Amino acid sequence: MSEDTYTGWFSQDAATFGDRMAGAREAAGMTQAQLARRLGVKLQTVTAWENDQSEPRANKLQMLAGLLNVSIKWLLTGEGDGLDAPAPELELAGDASAVMAEMRQLRSEFVRLNDRLGHLEKRMRILLKETIT
């Protein structure tokens, strides 16, 4: 692909609010569930924003921009401080592609296990409070 292919990747003509939000969230290394938790909204709300089914109110938009380290203007229009276009993907040798796939799988499993551990810690705190009281 040429360099021109990546010009204006997140522009208003090429991407929607939801596209820019999802791209910034992924660049920040957060899942939709993690972002929802940090914003104090339901997972379905974040999903609806990323699918362009609804948009956040001004106070949540400001929090969202701060959490994702982009400007509100960039989220809304693609102009201003935001993400650069993704670098062109390199053609990888067969073994490298398999390793990358396994790494992605492990990363998603790690996120799932981390969430599970958080739930168990919360249950343990509740049980300990009940034991003390």
| SSE pattern | HHHHHH
End-to-end span in angstroms?
65 Å
CATH architecture level-2 label of the largest domain: Orthogonal Bundle
Q: What is the strand content?
A: under 5%
Can you summarize the main beta sheet?
Answer: none
What is the gyration radius calculated from CA atoms? 19 Å
Could you estimate the helical fraction of the residues in percent? 55-70%
What's the level 1 CATH class of the largest domain? Mainly Alpha
Parts with pLDDT < 50 across at least 5 consecutive residues: 1-7
Q: CATH homologous superfamily of the largest domain?
A: lambda repressor-like DNA-binding domains
CATH domain fold name of the largest domain: 434 Repressor (Amino-terminal Domain)
Q: How many strands in all? A: 0
Q: Please state the structural category.
A: mainly alpha
Oligomer: single chain
Count of separate DSSP helical elements? 6
User: What's the number of structural domains?
Assistant: 2
Shape: flat
Mean pLDDT: 81
